[in-house]
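Weekly sync, protein design subgroup
Attendees: M.S., D.O., the rotation student, P.L. (late)

Item 1: inverse folding check
M.S. brought a backbone from last month's batch and wanted to see whether the design step gives back something sensible before we order anything. D.O. pointed out we never logged the input encoding, so this time it goes straight into the notes. Structure tokens as presented (421 positions):
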């Protein structure tokens, strides 16, 4: 490829982006800005708790309360959608995440009750963010362009999960070694929180650049669903099994076996740039029929990382595991979310229901998996040992995840058989 052709490529990709519907582009830009916030919340809040309490169970309890707050807020959000604009609820969720971080950093003593309250508040922010994000993603995309949508979105999430940990981790290490803020590390974390809050304000402004439609039907609470949706809930439960670990395990392992937040940022950034470019390429070039292959490769990479961590259980093992996580999580998401949206497209038309009812119900499938996964870790750490939990619970989860492959394949085939959209 010539230099001229190479220089034209970014312009061509930008022009392709401009060909997408305006509402889809506004949503993508909003999520790209907020992508700089998520790594701080998902990585450094766990590291902050670990540094302050030195107790992995407290980290797990915090994450469990976060995940408890999410489905509760999905329910509240469903009722509010009949009265409040979806863009207002979406921006409120983003702003609330910054506020909940501030509450966490202001706690003098990290008791179980204090951490639990902060976790519930953070879960509420995630609930407002994810419930409205998923509905907007569903309604601004079609099955034919969802690989591109999630490929581009995941590309930016991956880039930020590389850059932000490196920058924030370096800042925290320098603040610690140079005794900034009088050697008070809580002050250093609070400075990061202020930047996070400013980013949530910016993303909230962008989402209001477009008028988005609320769900047309007000009713969203149902207890009986089509058999295809029940299978999708099973897939959600398996996804949820790993989610808690993907937030808590890296912070705990790195603080235990490597030592500090600077290393945490360094490890996250080792191979992420290649991963991000690969994700964009996959989203740009692959078709719906390729989703299962991407899905399967991601799960096998995750299994390999957990095995290496369990066998070595050292700094090297942690590095390999985190590298595998950096590859697995976006590969899994770029395939999983379009499958979920496709199933919602199909069953909502068959059952003539509000699409939000499926987004709400899906969250409970995830929650069951998250609860079981984190419960397994807490039980292992309490009744056997912390080392056993860190070594083997991840392997158990990764092996269980392999059941997702045949289930996802069956769901995809049935969704296309039932309805052509």
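Designed sequence read out in the meeting:
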């Amino acid at each position: 490829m010539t230099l001229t052709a190479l220089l034209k490529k970014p312009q061509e990709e930008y022009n392709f982006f401009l060909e997408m519907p305006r509402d889809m582009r506004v949503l993508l830009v909003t999520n790209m800005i907020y992508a700089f916030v998520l790594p701080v919340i998902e990585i450094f809040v766990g590291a902050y708790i670990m540094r302050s309490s030195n107790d992995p169970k407290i980290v797990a309890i915090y994450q469990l309360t976060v995940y408890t707050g999410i489905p509760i807020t999905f329910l509240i959000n469903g009722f509010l959608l009949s009265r409040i604009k979806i863009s207002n609820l979406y921006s409120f969720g983003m702003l609330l995440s910054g506020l909940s971080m501030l509450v966490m950093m202001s706690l003098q003593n990290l008791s179980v009750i204090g951490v639990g309250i902060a976790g519930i508040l953070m879960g509420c922010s995630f609930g407002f963010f994810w419930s409205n994000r998923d509905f907007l993603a569903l309604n601004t995309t079609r099955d034919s362009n969802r690989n591109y949508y999630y490929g581009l979105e995941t590309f930016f999430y991956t880039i930020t999960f590389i850059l932000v940990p490196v920058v924030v981790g370096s800042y925290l290490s320098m603040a610690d070694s140079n005794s900034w803020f009088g050697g008070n590390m809580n002050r250093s974390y609070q400075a990061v929180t202020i930047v996070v809050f400013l980013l949530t304000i910016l993303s909230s402004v962008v989402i209001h650049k477009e008028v988005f439609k609320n769900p047309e039907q007000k009713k969203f609470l149902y207890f009986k669903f089509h058999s295809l949706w029940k299978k999708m809930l099973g897939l959600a439960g398996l996804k949820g099994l790993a989610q808690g670990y993907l937030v808590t395990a890296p912070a705990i392992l790195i603080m235990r076996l490597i030592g500090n937040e600077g290393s945490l940022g360094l490890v996250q950034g080792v191979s992420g740039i290649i991963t991000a470019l690969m994700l964009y390429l996959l989203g740009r070039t692959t078709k719906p029929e390729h989703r299962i292959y991407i899905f399967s490769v991601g799960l096998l990479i995750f299994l390999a990382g957990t095995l290496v961590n369990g066998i070595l259980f050292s700094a090297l093992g942690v590095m390999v595991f985190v590298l595998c996580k950096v590859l697995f999580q976006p590969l899994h998401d770029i395939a999983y979310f379009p499958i979920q949206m496709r199933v919602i497209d199909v069953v909502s038309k068959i059952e003539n229901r509000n699409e939000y009812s499926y987004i709400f119900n899906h969250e409970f499938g995830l929650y069951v998996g998250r609860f079981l996964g984190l419960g397994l870790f807490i039980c292992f750490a309490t009744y056997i040992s912390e080392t056993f939990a860190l070594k083997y619970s991840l392997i158990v989860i990764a092996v269980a995840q392999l059941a997702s492959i045949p289930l996802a394949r069956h769901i995809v085939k049935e969704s296309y058989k039932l309805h052509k959209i």
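Discussion: The chain has 16 helices and no strands. The two ends are 38 Å apart (CA to CA).
Action: P.L. to compare against the previous round before Friday.
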